[in-house]
Design brief:
The protein has 10 helices and 10 strands. It is of the alpha/beta class. The longest helix is centred in the last third of the chain and has 22 residues. It starts with a strand and ends in a 9-residue tail after the last helix.
């Protein structure tokens, strides 16, 4: 089988590319496993100063692979490993992000998007709960905005994502906008960079350590509920679920 996470190395930057466009880079067991392995390799590479996480296709990550979802505990482990990585992780987004994909943005240290990207916490429309991803996101997001978008599943654009704290920046040319960011990381001392990352990620790491296991259990329980089965069936059948008004 071809890899769904590809790694490249240049100028002290390891770029990890989610490359499963057929399912919109959804969080399958395979993708989560390969991404965890690639991050571990980048963390152990003395030549890598930072990691860029990007994607192929028009979607950065569509959230859980509904046909073959990963174990919530494995997804939780991935999120914790990104926050614990001793090197900054920078998300580069040029497409859409949905549900669990927003959790990946939440644990990245910096996140930049190009034009046309959109965002939505789609879980409630499927009878699901944004459980595990709430741990890294609630410490970062504007509380009123988090309540609105978690509850309503409304889509929003990159400018709004910056305003509420989901993204660091957005620009017409995301690579040009990221150039000074990556240059700054390249000039930083590796040990100083690691310790500074620990400072700025403290609230996210604390939330994941405190609440992660319970949230993973909640996610698994809700995913097996009758309401979720109806929501997922409706999605596959391209109809509204029975509760929709």
């Amino acid at each position: 089988m071809e890899s769904v996470v590809n790694a490249a190395h240049a100028h002290g930057i390891t770029t990890l590319t989610l490359d499963s466009p057929a399912n919109r880079n959804a969080l399958s067991a395979t993708l989560v496993g390969e991404l965890r392995a690639a991050l571990a390799a980048a963390g152990a590479d003395p030549q890598a100063r930072a990691v860029v996480l990007t994607h192929t296709g028009g979607t950065f990550c569509a959230g859980a692979d509904l046909a073959s979802p990963c174990d919530p505990a494995d997804f939780l482990a991935l999120l914790r490993e990104i926050t614990d990585l001793p090197k900054p992780v920078v998300a580069r987004v040029t497409g859409h992000v949905r549900a669990g994909g927003l959790g990946l943005l939440g644990v990245c240290d910096l996140a930049a998007a190009g034009p046309g990207s959109t965002y939505a916490f789609t879980e409630t429309h499927l009878g699901l709960v944004p459980a595990v991803i709430s741990a890294p996101l609630l410490p970062r997001l504007d509380p009123r905005a988090a309540a609105r978008y978690f509850l309503t599943a409304e889509p929003f654009d990159a400018a709004e994502a910056v305003r509420i704290g989901l993204l660091t920046l957005h620009a017409q040319d995301v690579d040009a906008a990221l150039a000074p960011v990556l240059a700054g990381l390249g000039k930083a001392g590796p040990e100083a960079l690691a310790e500074t990352k620990r400072l700025v990620t403290a609230p996210v790491r604390e939330a994941l350590a405190r609440d992660g296991a319970a949230l993973a259990e909640l996610s698994a329980r809700v995913f097996g509920s009758a309401e979720a089965r109806e929501g997922l069936t409706a999605r596959f059948e391209r109809r509204d679920p029975s509760w929709a008004r």
